[in-house]
């Protein structure tokens, strides 16, 4: 095997993907500007290319790597990912998520790299009445974040068609949990870390609306353990090495869990969680639950871990 170039590999999800790739026998080089990634998540023997996707030196950095190592392909995770922040700062999201993806595609093409695994999101579906959500559901994102992830998919697909590259896009549903303490999600926007912080500090976690059209009135999401998600990347990388193009695939558990159910699971693992009901958040759909049957069929991947595993 050669080497995978992993963008965003010092991030929460990226560091799990890095570990899973290496455990499966792949080599990997991380490209990360460390704006949100943490170098302490990286093993000491992993090469880190500290570079922004928007840097004028990106082509040179990728080309230099390809000149001295056989690069199998790109696993592209680097992106901005907060829905509320994207509503407040849409141009930043278009610049980094769309512009950064285009820049990475150009750099890969210039270096002769012809396999591309793209990190997408269930946010591409927006507010859909479909349950579960299949990959054939209309993509009508309701936030700038979702729009940029969909535009990135379009760019990857059209580029691959034009140059004869192989590609896939993994549409993550809600990622949670950790495979090791040092890899934990330290972000301030994902639900599970916020709920766990509330349990530790006694500061109430905000529940954005209790009047949604769901069984308990709070938003339903499909939560997938980050270790399972990382294994989905390994399965996708194997398909790309066979020069297959699986296209866009959902990555989830095909099971909805409400905000209050997540809080209850944290309480089982960690103790009481104070909460505060506040106004709905703009850009949030009421429910998004995956149909993950296609990835099982195409890549042989299925999630193994549940919400209690994530909370523990």
If you had to describe this structure to a student in words, what would you say it looks like?
Belongs to the NAD(P)-dependent epimerase/dehydratase family. Its cofactor is NAD(+). This protein is globular. The model has no long low-confidence stretch (mean pLDDT 95). It starts with a strand and ends with a helix. Strands 3-2-1-4-5-6-11 form a seven-stranded parallel β-sheet, sandwiched between helices. A three-stranded mixed β-sheet has the order 12-9-14. The protein has helices at 12-23, 58-68, 83-88, 90-110, 144-163, 191-201, 226-241, 259-270, 293-299, 307-311; strands at residues 3-7, 27-31, 48-49, 71-76, 115-121, 166-172, 174-176, 205-208, 220-221, 223-225, 247-251, 257-258, 275-278, 287-288. It has ten helices and 14 strands. The chain has 312 residues and is an alpha/beta fold.
């Amino acid at each position: 095997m050669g080497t995978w170039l992993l963008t965003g590999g010092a991030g929460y999800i990226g560091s799990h993907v890095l570990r899973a790739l290496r455990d499966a026998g792949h080599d990997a080089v991380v490209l990360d500007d460390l704006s949100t990634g943490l170098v302490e998540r990286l093993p000491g023997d992993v090469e880190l290319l500290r570079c922004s996707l928007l840097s004028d030196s990106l082509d040179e950095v990728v080309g230099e790597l390809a000149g001295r190592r056989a690069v199998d392909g790109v696993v592209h995770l680097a992106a901005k990912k907060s829905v509320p922040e994207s509503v407040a700062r849409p141009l930043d999201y278009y610049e980094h998520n769309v512009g950064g993806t285009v820049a990475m595609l150009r750099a890969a093409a210039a270096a002769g790299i012809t396999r591309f695994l793209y990190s997408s999101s269930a946010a591409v579906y927006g507010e859909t009445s479909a349950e579960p959500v299949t990959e054939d559901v209309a993509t009508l994102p309701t936030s700038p974040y979702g729009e940029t992830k969909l535009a990135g998919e379009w760019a990857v697909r059209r580029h691959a068609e034009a140059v004869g590259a192989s590609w896939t896009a993994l549409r993550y549903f809600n990622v949670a949990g950790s495979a090791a303490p040092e890899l934990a999600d330290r972000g301030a926007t994902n639900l599970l870390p916020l709920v766990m912080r509330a349990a530790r500090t006694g500061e109430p976690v905000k529940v954005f609306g209790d009047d949604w059209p769901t069984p308990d009135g709070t938003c339903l999401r499909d939560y997938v353990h980050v270790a399972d998600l990382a294994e989905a990347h390994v399965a996708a990388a194997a398909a790309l090495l066979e020069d297959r193009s699986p296209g866009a695939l959902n990555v989830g558990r095909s099971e909805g869990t409400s905000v209050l159910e997540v809080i209850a699971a944290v309480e089982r693992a960690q103790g009481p969680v104070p909460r505060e009901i506040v106004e709905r958040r703009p850009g949030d759909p009421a429910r998004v639950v995956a149909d993950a049957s296609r990835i099982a069929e195409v890549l042989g991947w299925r999630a193994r871990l549940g919400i209690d595993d994530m909370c523990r």
